[in-house]
Automatic annotation (TrEMBL):
A GO-annotated cellular component: mitochondrial matrix
Sequence ranges assigned to domain Aminoacyl-transfer RNA synthetases class-II family profile in this UniProt record: 125-280
Phylogenetic lineage: Eukaryota, Viridiplantae, Streptophyta, Embryophyta, Tracheophyta
BP GO annotations: phenylalanyl-tRNA aminoacylation
Catalytically driven reaction(s): tRNA(Phe) + L-phenylalanine + ATP = L-phenylalanyl-tRNA(Phe) + AMP + diphosphate + H(+)
The organism of origin for this protein: Acer yangbiense
Function: Is responsible for the charging of tRNA(Phe) with phenylalanine in mitochondrial translation.
Name of the protein described by the UniProt record: phenylalanine--tRNA ligase
Alphabetical UniProt keywords: Aminoacyl-tRNA synthetase, ATP-binding, Ligase, Mitochondrion, Nucleotide-binding, Protein biosynthesis, Transit peptide
Enzyme class, spelled out: ligase
């Protein structure tokens, strides 16, 4: 079949005009860092499992091998994401075709697992988002989702209604989890909005002089429970970012390191050892390049970042807008600074100049000096 170009886990991906998944991203499917016992992400997953095991023995069912290719219905409709929500856009989400995406959150599995009759569960997996580039953002990362369903007898004796009861239980559970992982750490709750929970909160922890958002959570929208046949119940849900937490716990300074196969990184972690501080083997010097161009209305920073990653891969550390100028004719030019830095070696200016030629001549055959064919 000529239009079949790649397959994953029995799922055959066909060429489709809406496909915006570059090969470098597709190559991450199946890596499953969260299932590696010696990897910081796997170590953290197991430490969270431990907390739930200790506090709710044999209660939570765990899922960590669900396919990251999901339907638009699973990723968005089933969790009540409005039709016009930005997260549905091609700018924010990787589409395989118009009805199929790389899940942008583990919430994509909530509804089906609830329909399957589970009332306490944790779902861990790789999630995919188009985004800007800096030391805490990478287009593939890992989340753990937790859901707990209550029955009327759980809250009836408490004197508060089901929603308040679930909200209090949720905060208590997650504060306990944060203490289990961090010991003493400064945290704060922020009110926020998610389509699938109400009320909704974010938990932030203080790290490297900044408040870092580590999880989103809330009381599950009644409509989600209703659709799974749970008319009298109340539930909470949370989704936490495993990289963010690991960076804090293990002192990992850059999110790209999670993907490093350099032994100087991988050998520093072992099973069950949470919070061993990572010793940087060296901070190699950065190489900065500024690039300015006129932009059209359809320009987005996420698209630029995808192009930059396509050219530079994991050598790019940060892409930041440093100048924005609109002339009298209404044309806008922007200047971006690209910071290149390898985690593993020193880069040379020449090598980055050579690499950058790809921005202007994506095909080697079009480069100045290339042999004409
Ligand atoms: N899915 C949300 C996110 O990725 C996190 C979340 C999960 C929030 C469950 C509330 C409840 O940002």
């Amino acid at each position: 079949n000529v239009d079949t170009f790649v397959s994953f886990d029995g799922y055959v991906v066909r060429e489709d005009p809406t496909n915006n998944v570059p090969d470098t991203i597709f190559a991450k499917l199946g890596m499953q860092l969260h299932r590696r016992k010696q990897h910081p992400i796997g170590i953290l997953k197991n430490a969270i499992y431990e907390y739930f095991d200790a506090n709710y023995p044999n209660k939570f069912d765990t899922f960590d091998d669900l396919c990251p290719i999901v339907s638009v219905k699973q990723n968005f409709d089933d969790v009540l994401v409005p039709a016009d929500h930005v997260s549905r856009s091609f700018n924010d989400t990787y589409y395989i075709d118009s009805q199929t995406v790389l899940r942008c959150h583990t919430s994509a599995h909530q509804a089906e697992i609830l329909r399957g009759g589970h009332t306490h569960f944790l779902v861990t997996g790789d999630v995919y988002r188009r985004d800007s580039i800096d030391s805490t953002h990478y287009p593939v990362f890992h989340q753990m989702e937790g859901v707990r369903v209550f029955s009327p007898e759980d809250w009836e004796a408490s004197g508060v209604d089901g929603t308040d009861y679930a909200a209090q239980d949720l905060k208590k559970c997650l504060e306990g989890l944060a203490r289990h992982l961090f010991g003493a750490v400064e945290m704060r709750w922020i009110d926020t909005y998610f389509p699938f929970t109400n009320p909704s909160y974010e938990l932030e922890i203080y790290f490297q002089d900044k408040w870092l958002e580590v999880l989103g959570c809330g009381v599950t929208e009644q409509e989600i429970l209703k659709r799974s046949g749970k008319l009298d119940n109340v539930a909470w849900a949370f989704g936490l970012g495993l990289e963010r937490l690991s960076m804090v716990l293990f002192d990992i300074p850059d999110i790209r390191l999670f993907w490093s196969t350099d032994e100087r990184f991988t050998s520093q972690f072992s099973q069950g050892q949470l919070g061993v501080k990572f010793k940087p083997f060296s901070k190699y010097p950065p190489c900065y390049k500024d690039m300015s161009f006129w932009i059209s209305d359809s320009f987005t920073e996420n698209n630029l970042c995808e192009v930059v990653r396509g050219v530079a891969g994991d050598l790019v550390e940060e892409v930041s807008l440093i100048d924005n100028f609109t002339n009298k004719k209404g044309m806008t030019s922007q200047c971006y600074r690209i910071a290149y830095r390898s985690m593993e070696r020193s880069l040379t200016d020449e090598e980055i100049n050579d690499l950058q030629v790809d921005f202007f001549f994506p095909l080697a055959s079009e480069r100045p000096g290339a042999e004409q064919v």
